[in-house]
Design a protein that fits this description.
single chain, 280 residues, alpha/beta, Spermidine Synthase, Chain: A, domain 2, Rossmann fold, 2 domains, 7-stranded mixed β-sheet, 4-stranded antiparallel β-sheet, 28% helix, globular, binds S-adenosylmethionine
């Protein structure tokens, strides 16, 4: 059988990735978005939302391990964690590897993403069976407004900042997040790439600086995301985030104490980037 060619439709990137696909495993439309699961001989199964590849089985660890383990190891005792988005379950799986975590609430606007992931992406969705996991189907922007000093760590694992995900990068949202965090809580969000989305990275950093006393940025390389050099923006109420403060006991493919430190941009370059002195 000849491969089918899948061309990504990413409205937020100046390139179009193109994948050889051996099978389309699922295709449907939820009230929120078009959902597909495709199979690639090179990347394994891939989740596609509104034409944009969200993850692949081969490299998803390069994103989920960094998104979850950096804040969770920078926090001395993360017990109560909130994940906004992340319906595939990859971030939840990593969060639940921490023995300190007593409760992980996942607020995913689109219940169908979770159902599709449970059926077609079992290595990612494994955490949904954990008794510590609580799933809420609601807009994360609204959900977070109901809480005060509730969570140790809040993680945004959302789609690109367009449509219903756009509110998750606003200063308003960051203020609600700040209120929902305990006094030593921290926040992290995936904030797109340095190469193709530099203005967005800067804007988010500047907004976070208006709200949190400690703001930082770390990166990992994600081969399937256009721009590759992926950023994670952090806002912390009390603890710095550049050093892990707990020994790394979780089983990972790449995350470690030394990779934690290495993920942060050198302070000089980081400041240049946020101040707009680094231009492309
Ligand atoms: N790792 C992926 C990436 O960066 O491309 C994200 C994957 S995850 C499937 C993203 C999820 O965020 C989607 O399922 C989407 O429905 C959810 N989402 C987007 N905006 C949201 C919001 N405002 N509240 C809750 N979930 C949201």
């Amino acid at each position: 059988m000849r491969d089918i060619v899948f061309i990504e439709r990413d409205p937020y990137a100046p390139v179009r990735h193109c994948y050889a696909v051996s099978k389309i495993l699922y295709q449907g439309k939820s009230p929120y978005q078009e959902i597909q699961v495709i199979e690639s001989p090179e990347f394994g199964r891939m989740l596609v939302l509104d034409g944009v590849v969200q993850l692949d089985e081969k490299y998803e660890f390069m994103y989920h391990e960094y998104l979850a383990h950096v804040p969770l190891h920078a926090h001395p005792n993360p017990e109560n964690v909130l994940i906004i988005g992340g319906g595939d379950g990859g971030t939840l799986r990593e969060v639940l590897k921490h023995e300190t975590v007593k409760r992980a609430v996942l607020v995913e606007i689109d219940r169908e993403v979770i159902e599709v992931s449970k059926k077609y992406l079992p290595t990612l969705s494994v955490g949904f069976n954990d008794p510590r996991a609580i799933v809420v189907n609601e807009d994360g922007y609204k959900y977070v407004q109901d809480y005060e000093k509730e969570f140790d760590v809040i993680i945004v694992d959302s789609t690109d900042p367009v449509g219903f995900a756009q509110v998750l990068t606003t200063e308003d949202f960051f203020r609600f997040v700040f209120r929902a965090l305990k006094d030593d809580g921290m926040f992290v969000a995936q904030t797109e790439s340095i190469h193709y989305h530099l203005e967005m990275v800067r804007t988010v950093q500047q907004r976070l600086r208006k709200v949190f006393p400690i703001v930082d940025l770390y990166t990992s390389v994600v081969p399937i995301y256009a721009g590759y050099w992926w950023t994670y923006s952090v806002g912390s109420k009390k603890h710095p985030v550049r050093e892990p403060v707990r020994p790394v006991k979780v089983k990972t493919k790449i995350y470690s104490e030394e990779m934690h430190r290495h993920a942060f941009l050198p302070p000089g370059f980081y400041e240049k980037l946020v101040k707009g002195e680094f231009k492309l």
